[in-house]
């Protein structure tokens, strides 16, 4: 319960950052036009924050319904397995509020970088096409690696060095995806370890009298 939620929240923040950054880049000219017509930065930022909030609210509604259903099913499974006389799943409103707040906070944190780009855009600059990238050598001529690496590899390295923030977030996304995969595989190993310790180390007797 303390491992999976932070990973999923970080993944959601990464996805919001990626989606909103692409959206701001596509609507660059519209943002410049709105600023030229008199809209201030706060109005434009609130427009994109509302967009993020609507997405989060849809996710909160779906997640709350799915979480309630899973909670009821797992509670019933525990009751049947341990033969409890009664085990009732209780809906606690504060848990739903905390989950909604954390989800919204993660989405807003993910949107900060894209919203910063919105604020930095000047009207005259935003209404123009973005300037082409400035190409330069990866290393000085005396340390050239053209003979050691292929042309596609050189292009890949240039793209990584030209967009360090994008490369960092891409690496972070891959790391979080790997973390989710490792945690999901860890669950099966944990169950096997639990069974091994319980039935082969702790409770080794053939029968228990109580």
Description:
It is a single chain. It is built from 7 helices and no strands. The longest helix has 42 residues. The chain has a domain of 131 residues. The protein is mostly helical and 210 residues long. The chain is flat, with a radius of gyration of 26 Å.
Instruction: Let me know the largest β-sheet.
Output: none
Number of helices in the DSSP assignment? 7
H-E order: HHHHHHH
| Arithmetic mean pLDDT | 81
Radius of gyration: 26 Å
Report the β-strand fraction as a percent range. under 5%
Shape by Cα distribution: flat
Query: What would you call the structural class?
Result: mainly alpha
**Strand elements, count:** 0
| Uncertain stretches | none
Helical content stands at: over 70%
Topology of this structure?
Blueprint: H1 4-26, H2 28-36, H3 41-82, H4 93-120, H5 123-126, H6 151-162, H7 164-202
Gist of the model:
This protein has 210 residues and is mainly α. Helices cover 75% and strands 0% of the residues. It has a domain at 1-131.
Question: Which key terms come to mind for this protein?
Answer:
single chain; 210 residues; mainly alpha; 7 helices; 75% helix; 0% strand
């Amino acid at each position: 319960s303390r491992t999976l939620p932070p990973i999923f929240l970080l993944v959601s923040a990464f996805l919001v950052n990626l989606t909103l950054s692409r959206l701001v880049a596509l609507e660059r000219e519209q943002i410049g036009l709105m600023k030229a017509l008199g809209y201030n930065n706060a109005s434009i930022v609130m427009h994109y924050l509302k967009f993020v909030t609507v997405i989060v609210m849809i996710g909160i509604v779906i997640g709350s319904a799915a979480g309630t259903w899973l909670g009821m099913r797992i509670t019933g499974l525990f009751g049947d397995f341990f033969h409890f006389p009664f085990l009732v799943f209780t809906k606690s409103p504060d848990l739903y509020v905390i989950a909604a707040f954390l989800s919204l906070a993660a989405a807003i944190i993910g949107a900060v970088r894209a919203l910063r780009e919105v604020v930095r855009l000047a009207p005259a600059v935003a209404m123009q096409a973005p300037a082409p990238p400035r190409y330069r050598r990866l290393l000085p001529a005396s340390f050239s690696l053209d003979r050691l690496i292929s042309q596609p590899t050189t292009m890949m390295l240039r793209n990584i060095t030209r967009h360090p923030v994008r490369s960092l977030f891409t690496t972070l996304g891959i790391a979080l995806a790997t973390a989710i995969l490792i945690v999901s595989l860890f669950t099966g190993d944990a169950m096997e370890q639990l069974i091994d310790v319980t039935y082969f180390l702790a409770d080794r007797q053939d029968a228990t009298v109580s």
